[in-house]
Amino acid sequence: MTSYMLTTAQISAVIIGLGFVLITHVVSQKESTHPPKVPSLLPWIGSAIRYVFAPTRFLALCCTQFGPVFKVLVGGRNIIVVGTAESIRSALFTDHRVLTAYVEHYNHFHVVCSDTSLYPLIHDTITYKLFPVFDRRLSKRAVDDLTGHCAETIFSRLKAFSEHEQVSLRRSLNEPLYVAVTAIFLGSKFSPDTYDDWVTFLDSVPKRLCRLPFWSVPSSRARGRLLQHVITCLQSANPDNDDDKLAGDFSKVLRENNISPEVASFVVLTVMLFLHTNMLDVVFWLFSWLMADPLAFSSLRDEIDRAVREEFGNIQTFIAEASPQRLDSPAFALLNSAILETTRLTTLQTGLRLAECDLELKDEEGTIPVRKGEYVLLFPRPAQRNEASYPDGHRFVIDRFVQDQYQGELTAAAGKPYFAFGAGRHLCKGRYLAMFGMKVLTILYLSLFDVTPAPLERRSSKWEPPQSSAHSIGTIRPTKDVFVKLRPRATL
Length: 492
Ligand code: HEM
Known about the structure:
By secondary structure, this protein is an alpha+beta fold. It has one domain (38-488): CATH 1.10.630.10. It has 18 helices and ten strands. The chain has helices at 2-33, 48-53, 55-66, 85-92, 102-112, 119-137, 150-159, 169-186, 195-209, 217-236, 245-256, 261-291, 294-312, 315-321, 324-327, 333-346, 381-384, 431-448, and strands at 69-74, 77-82, 99-100, 167-168, 351-355, 359-363, 366-370, 375-378, 449-453, 483-488. The strands form three sheets. Strands 1-2-8-5-3 form a five-stranded mixed β-sheet, sandwiched between helices. A three-stranded antiparallel β-sheet has the order 4-10-9. A two-stranded antiparallel ribbon has the order 6-7. Helix 8 (169-186) packs antiparallel against helix 12 (261-291), helix 8 crosses helix 18 and helix 12 (261-291) packs across helix 16 (333-346). The longest helix is centred in the N-terminal third of the chain and has 32 residues, at 2-33. The termini are far apart. The model is unreliable at 1-5 and 20-31 (pLDDT under 50). Protoporphyrin IX containing FE is lined by residues 101, 104, 134, 274-275, 278-279, 282, 343, 350-351, 420-422, 426, 428-430, 433-434.
């Protein structure tokens, strides 16, 4: 009897043990299948080669194969790519000490400065000394105070293009915007002649960010000249001068904290990256998609003509009085929608975070385990093109956001996934300035010129915008420029 009892106990123990092993196995299987891992034959290197040489294409392919949330090994780092609305929101609103953004900032420093020992100081200066200035100066209420000359500058730069038979779309949009917005940051000593250096430098950024073996004398020299110019602007900024408000604040803060001119120039060039990398590409795509859709083009121009007349009287008064607050008027609802729609379609990655401890992110599928030392890449592209949220999500639909009654708060799509300007602690600090700059440029460009893609004589639905480059990082970049004919409009 005793031996029979023992046998039963032993059998029970074995069964319980087996059950435990089975459950643990199932749980660990579950853990390891969500998020799915992108397979790779190369230990440590993983998918680094495919990622680094064509990040956009690689992420798109993985998304098709594994869904919008997956894990990929890139050069010894596990990166968890999150592409659903819930997982992105969960990452953006996780405590910033648990998922830290400093790796993202360090990546940017790498683009402007090769001396890694300076990164902690640059990081500290940007985050704790300059960001408070941004919060104060670029808030929705305060930004009006900085933008007084913006429309005038864009107008005078645009006029120069009317003298040419055929112009580069990229240059004719980007140069006026670059000059007007950089002047707000660098003040009265800022030279518009730096645009070519900026483009040479900016074109090298994707390669620099991906740490590709990169050596280009022209782009490094251009960067050197830009850094030197930043030093000159900061040193001569006069806070009493109306054009030097922001530059004056910057130089005061940097001086008070004993930041050397060299470090100050790295700091400000990093800020210029924040400033321009997305904005300049967004306006390029907006105009490309408008030219490919003649109906959208003419309805936007009709709205602009009407709104300028009704809100300002004429274009000259618009140039003198345009302000962020006045352009938030519902009279410009279609323009606002067109820009938001462009940002929806052009957003790729919006940030990289490092897990400082184990954590779990929420997802429609359940939870996503993230281990200490793993990276989380915010990748809103699939969510922002999701057919369930945005019918016809791959198409540019100019009035998609009109019905959302824009109040100037960038609530682009209540309840729908929209992360073009980030969210949470690292929400874009320049979003109101960016929206204003892009609106002024579009209003003036369409008011001044009748624009057609060259060599086509008429805007045509047959005209195709360029493809997006596989090397894009934050916002899609075009593979090539577009040439356009600008005819001054008879009405002006
Ligand atoms: C179309 C134009 C723009 C887009 C799409 C855009 C997008 C973004 C996004 C997605 C982030 C969040 C990054 C993250 O979560 O790690 C961000 C952050 C930031 N943006 Fe923008 N941005 C634009 C224009 C500007 C402009 C004009 C400025 C001028 C100051 C600016 C300044 C910043 C700064 C300083 C941050 C960092 C905030 C932080 O880390 O706390 N951006 N931007």
